[in-house]
Description:
alpha+beta, CATH 3.30.1330.120, 8% strand
Amino acid sequence: MVPRRNTVPEYEIVRNHTLRVYRSEENLPREEQLAWKIAAVASDPVAVEDDVAEMIVNRIIDNASVAVAALNRRPVANARAMGVCHPREGGATIFGIPSRRRFSAEWAAWANGTAVRELDYHDTFLAADYSHPGDNIPPILAVAQQKGCGGRDLIRGIATAYEIQVDLVKGICLHARKIDHIAHIGPSAAAGIGTLLGLDVSSVYQAVQQGLHVTCTTRQSRKGEISSWKAYAPAHAGKLAIEAVDRCMRGEGAPSPIYEGEDSVLAWMLDARDREYVVPLPEPDEPKRAILETYTKEHSAEYQSQALIDLARRMGERIANADSVESIVIHTSHHTHNVIGTGAGDPQKMDPRASRETLDHSIMYIFAVALQDRAWHHVQSYAPERAQRADTVRLWHKVSTVEDPTWTERYHDPDPGRRAFGGRVVITMKNGDILEDELAVADAHPAGARPFARDDYVRKFNILTQELVSEKERQRFLEAAYRLPELSASELGGLNVTLDLAELSSAEPDGRGIF
């Protein structure tokens, strides 16, 4: 069966920046450094096109959906407990808390960023590396609220952050050297804040460098027993980006050149003293459209499982009894096999008592549950009683992955119409029958069977918030989001959702910790 070709927009790369290490005596001019070129893109006053602005509204709705659904989970409650210890008049809002209460922007970004990331349920972009570009929205929105910016300013800032995040992910693979992908958020969020505030190129240049320097961490956060730090990591990067911009607005500098220097990130953390990277960036006056290359999730799980969940639901219709299955082999890309598959070599991915964070990075578990249930739920599919069900454990332990070069090639295909994040599944039954099927992209992907549109984002928001937020509050938020291009500075606080049907934990300082 040949994977179905889909028609999606093509996005031309108009300028490639070649990146390599320079010895100190080579004295690479600022204007030729990647951080400067990123800053120049951020400072370019080019208008944001209407379809980009519409997608930004969609992603603001998407972030709110997944954040509200996670508000009373322990990592989010703890992040909020830290945030509420830093009240500030005229500051930023924190999800769940009435908008009249304001907090320091960096701490609001910390609390909101953790909420957005906790369920692994917001947008994604996959290329040379992984990313969740929606992680840029909480720090930029928090700064916009605190600095009195309007909706159009916010749109411009978010468009820049998505552009820089996507371009870095296309050009620089961090995970190959076991650096966590959140290191790309430092520069992208700093650049987005620079655009939001209309900063000059020099200030943004220094902030981009600081943002990268302080956010390089290892991929152990996504290896073995995965903890709550997976949710905290991008929020931490966003918080650090705000602090970096603040310092650079006061005239402070950064380690330079942070990408190309002799002892730089490129030279040592990426061990690239003898190789080059190529990063695409827009030309001057070219609109920033990268957000349109990104995609959100229909299912609360690691993105590379999205198509395989849809495929499992489809194949599950042909299997009446899971115990009749002899084996399940998923033929997929290098990334999927080695990150969420058996190629990772993580026994925790097969452990019925593993953490939720570990299970959402186990395609073996995910495929087994989706096959049995023909559905996926952001809470029920991860419940301990679900993970420990005897028939599920038996099926789960029959699932394995193998890397298929064809799927690896398609994962990296430069043609968006060919790019694929799914795989081919072979199910062998105990009676010798073989079931085989494949799916290239998730149904909700722009090239999928049911691409997400505005109505889908709104439906996702209503489903995830319906038992937590009143109809009146939901409609108020949605109407504010729809009006984003028109929102004044005084109205920007409306891009917050108050929990008014359920009790919110940690809405007041609780005496624990240091703050």
